[in-house]
Design goal:
With about 150 residues, the protein is mostly helical. It has helices at about 1-30, 40-60, 65-90, 100-130.
């Protein structure tokens, strides 16, 4: 289960990294439209939540320490916050449907929250790798005194 924990943590980090690529694809697609962010939305609303739940499950099955299991839950909360921030940013437009300073500020928080989520997942992955790596063998210290056979 510990290797599965590492694998799902790795896949989760890759999915989060791809989110930035997919957001850039949406931002630079011409003409812009709702479909420009289709990959970003699908990954954020389906792939990342499923991988997050699997990571939590494997952390628990790997008998990870409670703090580490708690850390694996944190990205799920951040994903929920991401959806909320995106909805709020899109919902705070002016009468003509244009961006407002409030909406742009919320959209900026969406980006910052994504960066925070990546850092949390990096921490989860590091901890998962440490948990999965075999403990170093104990080294017995031997003292040889002069005149005694070794």
């Amino acid at each position: 289960m510990r290797k599965a924990f590492v694998v799902t943590s790795t896949l989760l980090l890759v999915a989060f990294a791809l989110q930035f690529v997919f957001a850039a694809v949406g931002a630079f697609t011409k003409p812009a439209g709702e479909r420009a962010y289709a990959l970003h939305s699908a990954t954020g609303m389906a792939v990342i939540p499923v991988l997050t739940l699997l990571t939590i499950l494997f952390a628990a099955l790997a008998k990870a320490p409670g703090r580490l299991v708690g850390l694996t839950v944190l990205p799920l909360g951040l994903v929920i916050l991401q959806a909320l921030l995106a909805t709020l940013a899109n919902g705070t437009t002016d009468a003509a449907g244009g961006s407002t300073p409030v909406g742009l500020t919320i959209a900026g928080l969406h980006a910052v929250n994504g960066i925070v989520a990546v850092h949390v997942v990096v921490g989860v992955l590091r901890a998962a790798r440490k948990l999965a790596s075999p403990a170093p063998a104990e080294v017995a210290q031997v003292t040889v005194r002069e005149g005694e056979p070794a």
